Amino acid sequence: MANLGEFIAGMPKCELHVHIEGTLEPDMKFALARRNGVALPYADEAAMKAAYDFDDLPSFLKIYYEGMSVLLHEQDFFDVTFAYLAKARSQNVRYAEMFFDPQAHTARGVPFATVIRGIRRAQAEAERVLGVKSQLICCVLRDWSAEFAMTTLLETLPYKDWIVGFGLDSDEQNNPPVKFKAVFERARREGYFLTMHADVDQRNSAEHIRQLLEDIRVDRIDHGVNALESAGLCDEILRRKLALTVCPISNACISPSSKAKEVRRMLELGMRATVNSDDPAYFRGYIGENFVRAQRDADLGRQDLMQLSRNAFEGAWLPSAIKDRFLAELDAYTSD
Q1: If we measure between CA atoms, which residue out of 155, 149, 219, 154 comes closest to residue 181?
Q2: Helices in the chain by DSSP H: which ranges?
């Protein structure tokens, strides 16, 4: 694995599934808490990390939303975003599409403008000084109302030039995709690309993926490994060349396995599977560690790893000329 580890480290990467709030590391969380006068329910970083013992999606989400309490000002959102992009660049991420969850902030009284202006400023600075390009996907929370989701969509409209896509995340139980059909129809009319989470091993997973394909008509599926339960779903995903954003380390934390073997199966079927980090500060692994986990658990070879990276660049919401530049860089890496 040593040679493959080096190969993974040097390989140009594209991240399509990372929640910017999920990159808030314990040291920064404590620093922002001190700066903003927020009391945290942990004595120190070690105690906080010890609480990151998740066994399902709800147990993770409780800690995830709790951690956002320290994000109050534009500079806070700048700091967490720039720190993620610097870490991503250190792992040779050339391009990232980042989720943000504005409802988790506006519901606490933090204005939408505060959130997005801090993130946007960090994106510009990271592209200037680090050379890492990024775009934003606004996510709405599926365990809240469709009306609140629509209000949030309307809040994005003054910032449309800063947002490439519109997504859905949070607790999937009793919150099927069709609950938000009207919201996503409006998002499409506004020109956003559409994606939704289809979390691993949820109740009615295959039915929810069917809704993503037929009722919402998404442009991408986040997670989505349960599509393998249905040949019909796989055929439709293949026909539409949809990317699936798999996150091995987080999968292993909230389900029985990393689903790396499912990633291998997707590759065998010709599906556009990708590897991503999800919420790396909480699941303790950025994109590089996720590639290593996938390689180890499914015995992936260099061509498999390259195909996963190629799939991500091809599935990115970028103009063809920019995609081609990144793909040429990936090709040059293997020819060296």
Answers
A1: 149
A2: 2-10, 26-36, 45-50, 57-67, 74-90, 103-106, 112-129, 146-156, 181-189, 205-211, 231-240, 248-254, 260-269, 280-283, 287-298, 302-315, 320-335
Q: Which residues, in sequence order, are CB contacts of 58 under 8 Å at separation 6+?
A: 171, 173
Cα dihedral sign, 299-13-159-80: positive
Q: How far is CA 114 from CA 65, 73, 106, 121, 227, in A?
A: 18, 6, 9, 11, 37
The pLDDT of residue 336 is: 65
Sheet holding 272-275: strands in order across? 13-19, 93-100, 133-141, 163-169, 193-198, 220-223, 243-246, 272-275
**What is the pLDDT, as a whole number, of residue 53?**
84
The phi, psi pair for 190, rounded to 5°, reads -80, -5
Q: pTM of this prediction?
A: 0.96
The tens digit of pLDDT for each residue in 218-241 reads 999 999 999 999 999 999 999 999
Q: Cβ distance 47 to 57 under 8 Å?
A: no
Q: Is the pLDDT of residue 1 over 80?
A: no
The two structure tokens encoding residue 284: 């303790």
Residue 273's H or E segment, with its range, is strand 272-275
Domains detected in the chain: 2-335 (3.20.20.140)
Q: Please tell me the total number of residues recorded for the chain in this structure.
A: 336
Q: DSSP labels for 145-156?
A: -HHHHHHHHHHH
What would the pLDDT profile of 169-197 be if each residue is shown by its tens digit? 999 999 999 999 999 999 999 999 999 99
Q: How far apart are CA 75 and CA 161, in angstroms?
A: 21
| 71 DSSP 8-state letter | -
Task: Region of 299 please: left (phi>0), alpha (psi -120 to 50) or beta.
Answer: left
Helix (H, G, I), strand (E, B) or coil at 174: coil
Give the CA diameter of the chain: 53
